[in-house]
Amino acid sequence: MIEYSERFEVIVIGAGHAGCEAALASARMGCKTLLLTMNKETIAQMSCNPAIGGLAKGHLVREIDALGGEMGFVTDKTYIQFKTLNKKKGPAVWSSRAQCDRVAYKMAMRNSLETQPNLVLKQGNVEEILIENYKVKGVLTSIGTVYYANAVILTTGTFLNGLIHIGLVNFPSGRAGEFPSLRVSDKLKAIGFEVGRLKTGTPPRIDGKTVDFSKTIPQSGDENFRPFSLRTREIEKKDHLCYLTYTNEATHKLILSNLDRSPLYSGLIKGVGPRYCPSIEDKVVKFKEKPRHQIFLEPEGQNTTEYYVNGFSTSLPEDVQLNALRTVPGLENVEMTRPGYAIEYDFFPPIQLKSNLETKLVENLFFAGQINGTSGYEEAAAQGVMAGINAVLKLRKKEPFILDRSEAYIGVLIDDLVTKGTLEPYRMFTSRAEHRLILREDNADERLLGYGHKYGLISDVLCKEFKDRKIEVEEEKLRLKKIFVPLGSFGNLLEENSNGKRVSLAYALKMPEITYEELLKIDQVPEDLSQIVKEKVEIEIKYDGYIKRELKEIEKFKKLENMVIPEEFDYSNLKGFKREAKEKLMKIKPRSIGQASRISGVSPGDIAVLMVYLKQFGSKSGLFSDKTTT
């Protein structure tokens, strides 16, 4: 073995979306950080679709940005189409999504890593996490080099014992064309970690030169949009078209006749796949009543003719994939450049983690990304930035950074993982958040920028801009409350029989028919108001009553969240609990009454008994406390 001469404070293993954010956060907080990746050419690789954001995922990207993360900023640099989804619905579910240039994205992220002070980027294959007395001390690579560190963050994606399936053929791989990691999970399992098996997949890629786009439906992006990152000053307007087409009866018939050659249906694949992103085989089998399924053709970048076939994830044999694609309108003469495939990989059920993403078994060892059972770039990046921040805080003996469910989708994500666990790839949805009207995209800065600044990840300049913006919003809301106009000013948008009634512009804006743009027809809006400010003003006025009601619900929620359970509290001798409840409490060791109440198998009655015991424990030790008073 060769011991590397320099010692690091934090080592991050894996340079996917979680690893990049973890390493940048750690380095930007002043810790000497090493990022180890098996291949420097695939840093921040978009293994699946060439896009960032989407339903609920766009919320995560803006939250990552407000905490000082990089994903949104790099997306703004390399996007080729931008679109806001769910715009016809309420602002709670508006979600931004950007098609990106796959190659440009990973090059831009690599540049961010290579130019970051305190961060060393090296290529190396980690074979073992070095642990002594259940405390991490470093890593060992396949060529015998030892790197020592005080904390290690493991972000291994699909590489742990990765196995690719294409038809009835399978072979070890972390991603197509890349080696798997074959020893790390076995070593961790040997010291007591529970290991599970999951499966995910990706569609084929096709040559755009062989597509008849006249038979498809062009899908354009938004002309006006708000970039993901607060750091983005100017953004070049680009709109590379995507295209919509559909499968049909011929497609389905061909797939059904070849299920015996599918590893998913022949029993070769043992891992559990993603429920909310099913393969085309699953769609055809499980939704037989549907005569067709959507297929989106998405460009891989500005300087390539390759397209990603969104909606056609598959592990069927290569010949079946090609023949099935050729039944789709526009793809009759298509050529595949890469077949789709399924991949099985090891993951670690996340109830083995604390809320700061540190493992319960090994001190100063953190997990982030798909290793915790999640799917998606955005979920991984969110965990990465949180793991990076918390690793540094742990080394500095500071309180952990834990977002609760009322503060951020990131809080919902991590709480779901460490409290409920997951037996299938976890994906974020707006429906998972109880307080989604408060957790909007437009107010991610208001919710989280203060934390980013506190930890040194957000500059003073961005903080001042946010404060100035907040003042502008409040001043404009006040101005609209003071200006009164005849109700008839809005013409046939409102009832014609207004009887000369006068209302404030703020009152008018509350009405569903009136938008901020409608106000411009009768009002002199300050010329220097940005689009961001106008959007915030409209949302805050129009949904004021709902927002106030939601904030009251959050107050109730926080009472239970603030009732902290001491780490040393012993559940083993408690009486009056169901066996399942007691076992779950002992295994998960919730940090608060609120978290305990969300554990599957723990009833409201169990919570009432637990609170009695905790008060007795607190009166004896003085340790049971309310966060609001400590």
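(the above was protein one; protein two follows)
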Amino acid sequence: MNQRLVVAALLAVVSAFGADLQPPQAGKTEIFHLKDIKPGMHGTAWTVFQGTVPEPVPIDIIGVWTGQLGPRSAVILAKMGGKAKETNVAAGMSGSPVYIDGKLVGAVALRFSVFSPDAICGITPIEQMLEIEDFDQSHPADARTPDKIPAAPAAEMQIPGELLSRYVSAGATSSLPTRIPSMVPIDTPLVLSGFSEATLTAFDPMFRQMGITAVQGGASATELSTKPAKGWEHSLNPGEAVSGILVSGDMSATGMGTVTYNDGKRILAFGHPFFNLGPLDMPMAKSEILMVLSSAFQPTKFGNATEVVGALRQDRYSGIEGELGEEAPSIPVHLKLRSLGVNDAVMKEKDFHFNVFVHQKWTPFLMMLTLFNSLQQINEYADEMTYRMHGDVTLDGAPDINVSTMLAPSELPVPAPMVLAGWWGDKFNRLFLNPVNTPKLKGVDMTVDLLPERRVATIENAWTPSTEVDAGSEIPVKVFLRPYRGERIEKDVMVKIPVGMPKGDHRILFSDADTMNRMQHAAAAGNRYMDIPETVSLLNQEHGNNELYVSLVEGTPTYYSDDKTLPALPASILNVLETERTTSRALIGSGETPEQQLAIPFDQVVSGSYSLKITVK
């Protein structure tokens, strides 16, 4: 009987814990310094288990662990009780503030990386987090960005586009750890809402390579406005949930954690890096927790970002820093999907509106991710599908980029929607990775038509009645293409031989867009200091892959510099240009000069090339 009374008394004490405690509020707070931490001390952590109001969690200090995360680093080891004992240290608890005697100790930020029966956590000292404000524009070398995934060697795998190569490499690389660290930063769940399971499965290797835990969520960050909502002044108190927004709108991607400190204008959170990007401008939002999944392996908070209240400004080793009431830029995107039937009649269409976080490494990847996901969101999606994409990218201070392409299924080791998404993401790669200026995108408006068959035609050969021609004449030529599972296509064209064309052997080239774009791509790759106007000019000069190009090729050299094509250069001018070139601004040359005469449109992807030899008498 006495044992029962003791148990009842203990339960009463546990249930009474925190009953008289009030959640912490914004404002300056006293600091409990690391040097004063002693084993056996008791404190209180604050975190949200459901809704928006943080709850107290008892904390027992185990001691200070030095050097575990690097030289001169320190982590406070502690054991969590209360509800956290049931849930374990969950993803999303990062940043939960810990107090001893009403003084702020730091943020719950680490957990054991393997199964543990106890809710053992690591606390980042608040002194280390307050150092974040000492940093400005330095960029950490170990940021978690898509470019850190090694691309597949081009010689082994012919994949169009750098982003697509990295996607394939991520899927082909083993993710098994070579060691198991004893304590790691608590996962910051990247909640993807409006994204299909197929998208998460396809991109999971890339997320895992970047150390990101991607989870599927419900309605989250559906607001398109990045302006701080009314009442932002009273938001994000210590212990409340906070999210950084990468994508918002009809689909969203948000990273969620907990606020550690709020002085009324500036907040600190997480206690470890988000992506370790250094300085950034990312929309920052309040969040609501739906539930905490209890697990000894991977406990996780599930929640939604609700409304924007500021902007994240720093993403550092010991946490993130945000400013309330500030607005971060984002790129508004409108994407229309149209399912076409017989005679290209529109059978169904669907519109997506969303905003994308602005960052030179993340924006191209997010454009790739959202396009691929959108293509999965229509019932007419099928394996034998051709995609026709066109639209505009609007920039501030530069001409619009006019985008147009077609893509049909092929024998590449990735599905056609991923190839199209990789092609799309690389357009933004080329914009954002120029080292001269950062592009300012005002908006993106794209349309993708889904055509219910594989539409591709390969150039086979060409024929003309006589290969001996006169300068100044026009000659008839027949060109033949072989479509996928269809009758051979025959086109009649007239090719004009220029009056001043020298006597001798020449050729007529029938080619696809890749052949026409190859030398300009090489010139762009050889120039490390190409500004935004030049990059835009090159993107707009690219040939569309649903046309057959007819060119007359002369045996005089052509050179490519930046976005300029310089045919038949005199030796004197070439010498001047070459003396002005450096290893960072290459002058790319070809031994021939193709003069394009015709571009024959097709409602198919044209591939291949064929040369027809002629002799000028």
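Reviewer note on protein two: The chain has four domains: 27-134, 146-151+159-330, 363-451, 456-616.
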